[in-house]
């Protein structure tokens, strides 16, 4: 039996969120929650214990890098960052915070699904 992975999707753009959720659900993933900022990402991770949190870097309030750092420190979930910027500085910050992967938006299904599978492939380091 294939394991069902729980995923939270966080992005301040509702259209982007909707697209990501649809792609993930069509691939058989269980999207357990959605949110629009880093505060929601941290809170939802603490209450729902997902395997993966996918979130945007630039959001109002707490940004994705700050939220990712808090989630990574707690060891509660893997983090996959989404960004509209492919700048080396953002990649370096994400790597320093233990982020498993980054994707540049707009995210295409043929990039998203293999990246999600890769991030989820080694959950032993998370749990």
Automatic annotation (TrEMBL):
Indicate yes or no for the key word Repeat.
no
The source organism is: Brevibacillus centrosporus
* Gene3D superfamilies, alphabetized: 3.40.50.2300
A biological process (GO) of this protein is:
phosphorelay signal transduction system
Q: Would you say which domain of life the source belongs to?
A: Bacteria
- Which protein, by its recorded name, is this? Response regulator receiver domain-containing protein
Residue ranges annotated for the Response regulatory domain, each copy included: 6-120
| Residues with PTM 4-aspartylphosphate | 56
Provide the alphabetized UniProt keywords: Phosphoprotein
